[in-house]
């Protein structure tokens, strides 16, 4: 009987070299190790995990933020208690009524005190009774508010800093008016005769700062958000 000859299954197997695949895996692993970064949350979790370094030193207490006096300047007759979308709608209505003219009727408010209204039309005049009345009202308002917020510090430099928040859609004449009123209040409170004349006097005076103007090129609702933050501030 004739014997049948056939190939064994092993004869058809193709030899596989794993070396290139292992090299690729290690290259990818090295790439991800070198490019990965821990997020702050992961770092915070890692700091709480037990270690073999002995007892950890007590964490230093976080600095307590210094209280500040907030002077807020925003369009009248806006009031606290609305959402950003509502402030945006009010702003659009005010601008529509003005027909492209600048907003001149504003509120100046310190913290949670009742605001006073200022008519900016008179602030561009060269003197006059109405200009004097507007300026005197702002100076008197800020003087009383600053007196009420005195902490009894050893010097004016150690008193609460003043931060002026002027809505960036308004003229900066209102922010300058508020700044001038704060410096005038400092003179009245300390009994000084002259205004700040040199660098040394300025460095020993209370710190007065302006918040930077907003950038509104990424959202049409940023006006409403800015007004909400300013008006809701204490």
Compute the number of strand runs: 5
Classify the beta-strand content into a percent band: 5-15%
Distance between the termini: 108 Å
Helix content: 40-55%
Question: Total helix count?
Answer: 7
Mean pLDDT, to the nearest integer, reads 78
Helix-strand sequence: HHEHEEHEHHEH
- Indicate how many domains the architecture comprises: 1
Question: How many strands, which pairing sense, and closed or not: the largest β-sheet?
Answer: 5 strands, mixed
Poorly predicted runs: none
Helix/strand/pairing class, anyone?
alpha/beta
- What does the overall shape look like? elongated
Strand arrangement, largest sheet? 3-2-1-4-5
- CA-based gyration radius: 33 Å
Commentary on this structure:
The chain has 234 residues and is of the alpha/beta class. It has one domain. It has helices at residues 19-35, 40-48, 84-98, 129-148, 173-190, 199-203, 222-232, and strands at 69-75, 105-110, 116-119, 162-166, 208-210. The chain has a 5-stranded mixed beta sheet, sandwiched between helices. Helix 3 (84-98) packs across helix 7 and helix 4 crosses helix 5 (173-190). The longest helix has 20 residues, at 129-148. The radius of gyration is 33 Å and the shape is elongated. The model has no long low-confidence stretch (mean pLDDT 78).
């Amino acid at each position: 009987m004739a014997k049948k000859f056939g190939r064994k299954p092993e004869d058809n197997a193709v030899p596989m070299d794993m070396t290139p695949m292992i090299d690729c895996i290690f290259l990818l692993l090295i790439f991800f190790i070198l490019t990965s970064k821990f997020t702050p949350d992961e770092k915070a979790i890692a700091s709480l995990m037990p270690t073999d370094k002995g007892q950890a030193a007590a964490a230093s207490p976080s600095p307590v933020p210094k209280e500040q006096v907030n002077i807020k300047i925003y369009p009248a007759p806006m009031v606290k208690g609305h959402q950003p979308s509502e402030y945006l709608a009010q702003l659009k209505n005010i601008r529509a009524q003005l027909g492209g003219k600048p907003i001149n009727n504003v509120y100046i408010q310190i913290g949670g005190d009742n605001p006073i209204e200022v008519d900016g039309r008179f602030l561009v005049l060269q003197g006059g009774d109405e200009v004097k009345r507007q300026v005197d009202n702002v100076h008197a308002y800020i003087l009383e508010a600053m007196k009420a917020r005195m902490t009894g510090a050893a010097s004016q430099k150690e008193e609460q800093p003043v931060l002026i928040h002027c809505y960036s859609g308004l003229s900066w004449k209102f922010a300058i008016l508020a700044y001038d009123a704060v410096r005038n209040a400092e003179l009245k409170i300390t009994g000084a005769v002259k205004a700040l004349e040199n660098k040394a006097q300025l460095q020993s005076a209370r710190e007065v700062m302006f918040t930077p103007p907003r950038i509104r090129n990424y959202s049409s609702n940023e006006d409403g958000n800015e007004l909400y933050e300013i008006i809701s501030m204490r």
